[in-house]
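ok so I'm stuck.
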Amino acid sequence: MLKVLIRDPLVMFLGLGVIVFGLYYGLENDDSDAVELSESNRNVFAEQFELLTGRQATQADLAKIEDDYIREEVLFREAIDAGMHLIDPEVREKLVQEMRYQITGYLPDPDEAKLVAYYLKHIDRYYVEPTYSFQHVFFEQLPDNSEGILAKLTRGEEVKGDEFWRGRLMPAYGVSMIRGMFGKAFLDTMDKHAFSEWYGPQESLLGWHFVKVTHSTPRSPLTFDEAKMQVTNDYVVDRLDSAVKDYIDDLGDKYRIIKHVKE
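replied:
not stuck anymore, here's the structure
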């Protein structure tokens, strides 16, 4: 029976096909696992060594450099096989940033005409925020005689509170700084009170305060010259984001996007 099968041309063809496929598959696996060190690599290593050290590389130097190269290549492939680029945030971020650079390449500095046009288009971004100047008396705990303290301050009398790390006078503090230091409720209450009028006790993120607003400045636009550095940064960021968006759009349906969120 075996002799009959061997004589059958179809069986012979299929058998040869299996052997050829097996050899090809084995060679492909060998190639994919190979860590190659070419003559051109060796020459580059020697040139880099001489550039960095100022002397010609010895055989021992080259042997160490080549061993390091092979070890790093093997470790790199092991890291990819282990999926470290998927689970390590720093590795992932580095790859993402490198991919962004591959997409956008080097961007030349924008000329002033483009920056002015960008500034005018997005002028609402560039302003000086409102500020408040105020004085306060601080207490770490809510004092028992709050009404009496407020009455003394209103009469212009001195009231000793607890020590505050920035003192009692807060000159020209921006609203974002006030919100960050004292909290949103503290800032909202400040908006509602007239100048030179003590009020309190007002709770903040740090304790309790009796407050008197002495001055304020409204939001005001920045000139182009004042905002130029920020405008330049925003312009470049928008260019980069636009290039990345176009690249991803050009991928079409390569990736199926699934959002597990309620619209």
